[in-house]
């Protein structure tokens, strides 16, 4: 009898807990807020917590923790795009997340996507193809910063398009702006990783990380069994250098 009573109590507690969680989830996630031309900006390098904090401060969501939990549950933590968004009418957390993940930003800014493993010439080509820089401008000016340019999605004001400019200077404003954003993003993303290390050690880590990021497929189990790690690094470095030379000739 006592065991049956305890079991019923557990079931009651579980049922009440489930109802409470469902109610809270509905209220914080699915019950919409009303916005009128509400502009919201996600800057390059903004993490999920920062985005949630800003949304809450502008009363676009009701609770930061539920927003963070929802995004992580969908696996979209790294998919929220930078940009300026305009919210109108009734809008819920799922709708906000969908807009940020799909990158439906307002405005005339040009969205520049730099993929992981891109070398300086590949970044230069992306800028040139977007009409934001002259051929070789970015690579010529910022080649010494290679390894410190963080791959991500960036927004560059369209009015800075070098093809729309009457005077095509070698070092365009767009190239400089992108480089500054990439370097700043790198500092933000690596702050906790590289803190306390000497400049020499930082440089060693960055060089190896850059090579592995671009050529990770070379490090197969078969290769590691046949050759020593230094020899693998040599092969990776050789391919990376050849890729840069080829890129500089074909751009």
UniProtKB/TrEMBL annotation:
Superkingdom: Bacteria
GO MF terms held by the record: lyase activity
GO biological process terms held by the UniProt record: cell wall organization
Gene3D superfamilies named among the record's database cross-references: Endolytic murein transglycosylase
UniProt keyword annotations, A-Z: Cell membrane, Cell wall biogenesis/degradation, Lyase, Membrane, Transmembrane, Transmembrane helix
Transmembrane segments annotated in the record for this chain: 12-30
Record protein name field: Putative periplasmic solute-binding protein
Taxonomic lineage: Bacteria, Candidatus Joergenseniibacteriota
């Amino acid at each position: 009898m006592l065991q049956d009573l305890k079991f019923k109590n557990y079931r009651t507690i579980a049922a009440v807990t489930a109802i409470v969680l469902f109610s809270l989830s509905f209220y914080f996630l699915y019950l919409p807020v009303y916005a009128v031309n509400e502009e919201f900006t996600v800057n390059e390098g903004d993490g999920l917590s920062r985005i949630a904090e800003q949304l809450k401060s502008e009363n676009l969501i009701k609770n930061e923790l539920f927003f963070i939990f929802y995004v992580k549950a969908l696996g979209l933590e790294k998919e929220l795009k930078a940009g300026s968004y305009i919210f109108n009418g009734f809008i819920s957390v799922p709708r906000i997340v969908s807009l940020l993940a799909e990158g439906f930003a307002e405005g005339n800014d040009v969205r520049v996507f730099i993929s992981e493993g891109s070398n300086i010439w590949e970044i230069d080509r992306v800028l040139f193809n977007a009409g934001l820089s002259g051929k070789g401008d970015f690579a010529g000016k910022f080649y010494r910063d290679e390894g410190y340019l963080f791959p991500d999605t960036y927004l560059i004001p369209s009015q800075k398009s070098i093809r729309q400019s009457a005077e095509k200077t070698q070092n365009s404003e767009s190239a400089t702006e992108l480089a500054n954003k990439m370097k700043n993003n790198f500092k933000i993303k690596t702050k906790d990783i590289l803190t306390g290390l000497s400049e020499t050690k930082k440089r060693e880590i960055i060089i190896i990380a850059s090579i592995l990021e671009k050529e990770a497929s070379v490090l197969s189990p078969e290769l590691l069994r046949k050759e020593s790690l230094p020899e693998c690094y040599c092969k990776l470095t050789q391919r990376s250098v050849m890729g840069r030379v080829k890129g500089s000739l074909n751009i």
